[in-house]
Amino acid sequence: MEFSPSTMEKLAELFRPPEPDVFQGEDFTPTEYEITSVRGKIPATERDPKDPKTIEEYEELEDRAAEDLCRIGAGLDDRKTPQYTMNYQQSVSAEDVFLQIGPKTPSSASCENIVIRIKMPGDKKENVDLNVDRTTVTVNSSQYTLNLPLPHGIDPDLSKANWDTAEDMLVLTLKLDREFDFVNF
């Protein structure tokens, strides 16, 4: 059996040890750069006694901070933020409800108004200062303050405000200002 030079070279490649998958430090050519570490050389800073020491304390601190940020009007002054509800209102007719041939859907996209009920116990209508613009409602009184961003633009000129004396509640009916399309009509 005779071997040609090309088959001998291929046979020699089969017996050559494989190259390593991971290079070691001695496999690289040396460079002029030096690698150093500063671990342990940076001085430790003084810890604040309020800093959390465990993960649970840290999470509790973060939860409290998030709750404080979520309160609308938080940090303005000593006045309280009143409780309020925000609901969508839609005008429906018999053809919408019974015949179901109208273009309205039960979603909020078919609603014409936003109704906001702000409970202000202990306050009077005369003490309430109300400011409504396209995107926000601001209510100030001697006891309460509320700066409420609205989820949709409204038309302040077509909106209404009423005071419910039995409940000490301000009721705002805000007319939505939406572009008309196949969903909003």
Automatic annotation (TrEMBL):
Locate the compositionally biased regions of type Basic and acidic residues.
Answer: 10-19
Q: Which PANTHER family match?
A: DYNEIN AXONEMAL ASSEMBLY FACTOR 6, TWISTER
Q: Which CDD domains match?
A: ACD_sHsps_p23-like
Q: What is the protein name given in its UniProt record? A: CS domain-containing protein
Q: Domain of life of the organism in this record?
A: Eukaryota
Q: Where is this region: Disordered?
A: 1-26
> InterPro entries, from UniProt?
CS_dom, DNAAF6, HSP20-like_chaperone, PIH1D1/2/3_CS-like
Please provide, alphabetically and separated by semicolons, the GO molecular function terms listed in this UniProt record: dynein intermediate chain binding; protein-folding chaperone binding
Q: Where is the CS domain?
A: 100-184
Q: Which GO biological process annotations does it have?
A: axonemal dynein complex assembly
UniProt similarity note: Belongs to the PIH1 family.
Q: Which GO terms describe its cellular component?
A: cytoplasm
